[in-house]
Amino acid sequence: TNFVNTNYQVNVTVTQKPDESITLKSGWNFVSTPKKLANPKADSFFSDIKTGGKAVKKWDAKKQDWAEVSPDEAIQPLTGYWIYSENEAALNFIYSKEIPAPLPDTTVYKGWNAVGDTGSTIETAAHIFGNIDWPSAEVFNLTTLELTTVWKDKAADETIPKYSGIWLYVNDEEKGFIFSSNRIFFRHADFLRRQG
Q1: Which of the residues 95, 112, 140, 163 has the least number of beta carbons within 10 Å of its own beta carbon?
Q2: Other Cβ atoms within 10 Å of 156 Cβ, number
Q3: CA–CA separation, 22 and 156 (whole Å)
């Protein structure tokens, strides 16, 4: 009698559908997450991005200097991150299902701060930055890869798109500040010069 072995091993990979997705352009992109991520580790969040060996960067506002993001570091809302992409690529956002969702807050320091968006809609700079003492901000455009200057005296007319990083200059430290949404002002040319 002949017996047929019908035991098979099947490997199935389940890919979770992202809650939202944006397209990174080839080159340096300045991005933020508007909400807490389900898996916030940098190597997970940026896993689909070919960086050409370049480290993800963030700005240490307290020291007013650059810092590299380690692979196991948690990507935080209200923070702007620089990531290099070798080509156009999708950056997927899978958010934490924690209920109630924690409301992110952060400390902004005197000088330049790299901040991010927490809004679910496009908002004005005046609404986002509220009453903190800021003279100007630079909003990163994910389509053109350029920065646009926003001045406080015209903030009511300037809208801030989601996901972009923002260079925000503040005159005084604000602890535990909660942005309803946000972006950052940064020394763009200096960053690109340092990256070679």
Answers
A1: 95
A2: 10
A3: 26
Q: pLDDT tens-digit profile of 95-142?
A: 998 876 666 667 778 888 888 766 555 666 666 666 666 666 677 776
Nearest residue to 118 (alpha-carbon basis) of 60, 162, 167, 158: 162
In sequence order, the 6+-apart residues with CB closer than 8 A to the CB of 135 are 151, 152, 169, 171
What 3-state class would DSSP assign to 33? Answer: coil
How many C-beta atoms lie closer than 10 Å to residue 44's C-beta? 16
Q: The sheet that has 57-60: what strands, in order across it?
A: 27-31, 81-85, 57-60, 65-68
And the tokens for 29?
């992109």
Under 8 Å between Cβ of 74 and 45: no
Question: Alpha-carbon distance 183 to 31, whole Å?
Answer: 9
The HSE-up count of residue 50 (CA atoms within 13 Å, CB side) is: 6
From first CA to last CA, the distance across the chain in angstroms is: 72
pLDDT digits (tens, 9 = 90+) for 140-177: 776 677 777 776 666 666 666 677 777 777 776 655 44
**Each residue's pLDDT tens digit, 73-95:** 999 988 889 999 999 999 999 99
